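Quick note —
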Amino acid sequence: MRAPQSDLPLVLDNVSLQAGATLILDRLSLMIAPGAPTLIVGPNGAGKTSLLRLCMGLTKPSSGRVSWGGQTDSKPVPRAILFQRPVMLRRTVAANVAYALAQAGTPRHVRAPRIAALLERVGLSDLARRPARKLSGGEQQRLALARALARDPEILLLDEPTASLDPAATRSVEEIVLMAAQSGIKIVMASHDLGQVRRLAGDVIFLARGALCERGLAANFLDHPMTPEAAAFLRGDLVI
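Predicted structure written out below.
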């Protein structure tokens, strides 16, 4: 039997993204490989969300090439993406997960135990029958993570999932993300929180003005930035 096709490494080769006259991403070349979480940081407008959309395959580059495991036409079956403000379906918590499993092609007879396992994984078992739109912000993000994990993704892309959450809710989400990473899922996550970068990241991609400004191990980036832009960003200065 032939081994299943992997989406990793994920490679961007001289990729640019343009909207009209606006250059959003400028000639990015980078490789995302299996391992610890990769966090994408940079000032607002640097292109973090656009990079995640390219990695998911939701957006096509204006020029350059994106490939998953050497393939440029890979369907996003082994990938999942979670945006900052996930949409909750007008149904219960359990039914939201059931819908995600159905969309992922999970056989009907195994959905009930999978729903239970996923809700246990994100700490929502006691809220299975609650309407999803009645959950708190942190609970909704955990439910969104359960729906993403229902796809059994090889790559999980996260767009600032804790941006509007309080510290307790942030910790709960981070714990789920770390457990997913420890299970072998490749996490690629945009974040504005440098403390979060220190807590979660194995390596960092730093974007400025749509360009790849710096890439390296998280500890090196945080403690010994190599570029003036990164040093300014870490000091809290404006990077324009």
